[in-house]
Amino acid sequence: MILGAHVSIAGGLGKSPLNGVKLGCESIQIFTRNQRQWKTKPLASDEVEGFRKELDHSGIRFVTVHASYLLNLGSPKDKVLTCSRDAFCDEIERCEELGIPYLIVHPGAHVGSGETEGLHTIAESLNVILRKKKGYRTQILLETTAGQGSSLGYCFEHLAEILGLLDDPDRVGVCVDTCHIFAAGYDFRTRRSYTHTLHQLENLVGLAKVKAFHLNDSKRELGSRVDRHEHIGRGHIGLKAFRQIVNEKRFSQIPMILETPGGEAHYAKNLRVLRSLSM
Ligand code: ZN
Ligand code: MN
Ligand code: MN
Questions:
Q1: pTM score, whole prediction
Q2: Which ligand has the shortest distance to the CA of 176?
Q3: Ligand in closest contact with the CA of 104
Q4: Around ion ligand 2, which residues have CB less than 5 A away?
């Protein structure tokens, strides 16, 4: 397992690899821009160089970027959709410049237009973006969601449908967030439920499409549709479930990123808990 956490970029992007190492990470997730703003300055070349150099020396094996929460690639409103696609193009450009392999995004929300329409809009957004950014090496990872509000991606069928509508599906994969799938109703606490959920993922999406995990316990119960992360082992998912995941041979070479609450102060502890489950 290649464990890590979402680390802060306070003090500059170049600081993030070492921040991760100090916490005990082998992989990190970052934002590359302010999450509350649509517009941001382009990356300066010394920022890019600094990040690449620090990353090279750090021993961090994977970096993922989480896209802004503002954007909605499934919006039925033209203005929001245009802003979202533009912002997402900027996100993927930054990743490409920084040499980051994965850009993780919540697929989108239909905001009343209905699920079918929403899923088609999301696929169209991805097609537009991938066409604009031809030849980029950064892959887009669609994150499973808890299904709050009208957000899509709370079932594996949604992800399968979007992937099936893409012109260039090899450039898009999936990030499984344990809190989100649990809140969406997928159980994996017992051997039996774990096997069943994995089968569904395999049959609908394909395990080869799963390029990253977000490891979070859940404050809320199975099927609550509420996205509230909890420290590993302290929520409704529990240690037994995480033991099955961190010992899963088929996921041993992909980044598994913590997004637990309380920020960096608690990551080291959560990483220790996860490592203690390894058999
Ligand atoms: Zn996310
Ligand atoms: Mn997540
Ligand atoms: Mn979440």
A1: 0.98
A2: 2
A3: 1
A4: 177, 214
